[in-house]
Amino acid sequence: MLGPVILAASRSDRMRRLISAAPVTKQVVDRFIPGETVGDIVPIIRELTAKGLELTMDVVGEDITTREQATAARDAYLLLIDRIKDLGLGTKVEMSVKLSMFGQALEGGHELALENVRPVVEAAAAIGTTVTLDAEDHTTLDSMFAIHEELRKDFPQTGCVIQAYLFRTEADARRLAAAGSRVRLVKGAYKEPAEVAYQQKHEIDKAYVRILKTLMEGEGYPMIGSHDPRLISIAQELAHQAGRKLDEYEFQMLYGIRGEEHLRLAAEGHRMRVYTAYGTDWYGYFMRRLAEKPANLRFFVRSMITKG
Questions:
Q1: What's this model's pTM, rounded to 2 decimal places?
Q2: Tens digit of pLDDT at every position of the chain (308 positions)
Q3: What is the C-alpha separation between 237 and 224, in angstroms, rounded?
Q4: CA-based angle 146:152:157, to the nearest 5?
Q5: Which residues are catalytic?
């Protein structure tokens, strides 16, 4: 399996330099990350929302080593929210944040991340939207869930992400479904040891379905993060069995992957949200997109061979 190898490379400074220097890299990265600045991304927001799609915006960057960088990440999100306010699209565009960007891994990181993310959640609420806390590797999740619980005291619409490949997630899903929160379910895109996570695709898929059934039968708002046609069909059937209306759950897919499916689901009346990342610190995000799907890796390698 190439996925774990690619994920290991995502932490390699040597691989970062090699891939960043490849002439074809920008062309391929642009498929998944359509801009570096807020100005770059505004036309994308306008284009997608005009097609009946919703968005969740991610300012990429996880390798935060100073408090100043964590503050800058906070300010980048506040700037984004100001632009969304100006566009009048607060009900169509939410934020996705990684707490590592807000200083979670630094000394006193739990408190620092909460301190930095709270103004972002407040600003999002003020324009009629919300924030979803992305899941990262398993060592960070207790902190993420504690911050999620704290934020929901004042902003109950705050969402979080759970990952099907982790053994713990079925219990997390039962807790979150009962709490009535917004929960995005994904397969998982970090290299995790066999002690904490399923390693085989068929095991992960079965866990995904079990967890999704729990969310659909619960009191919360499920967000189905998957490009897998089979899982999308299963999600629709589970929603039907649970008696959910079309506005009581949503699908989420990445920008640059299965764009026609985004439009098809929206045309059928489903809420379809496009996870759209932008920024200059794109390397870790890009490598996880390659690891998630062999076709992405083949596309990149073929481009390097023909263009490099």
A1: 0.87
A2: 545 544 554 455 565 555 555 555 666 667 788 888 999 999 999 999 999 999 999 998 767 899 999 999 999 999 999 999 999 999 999 999 999 999 999 999 999 999 999 999 999 999 999 999 999 999 999 999 999 999 999 999 999 999 999 999 999 999 999 888 999 999 998 889 999 999 999 999 999 999 999 999 999 999 999 999 999 999 999 999 999 999 999 999 999 889 999 999 999 999 999 999 998 776 666 666 666 655 555 555 554 444 43
A3: 13
A4: 130
A5: 134, 184
Query: Taking the CA atoms of the chain, what radius of gyration do you get in angstroms?
Result: 18
Per the CB < 8 A criterion, the answer to whether 83 and 42 are in contact is yes
Q: Is the Cβ–Cβ distance between 19 and 12 less than 8 Å?
A: no
User: Rounded CA gap, 184 and 20, in Å?
Assistant: 31
Residue 230's identity, in one-letter code, is R
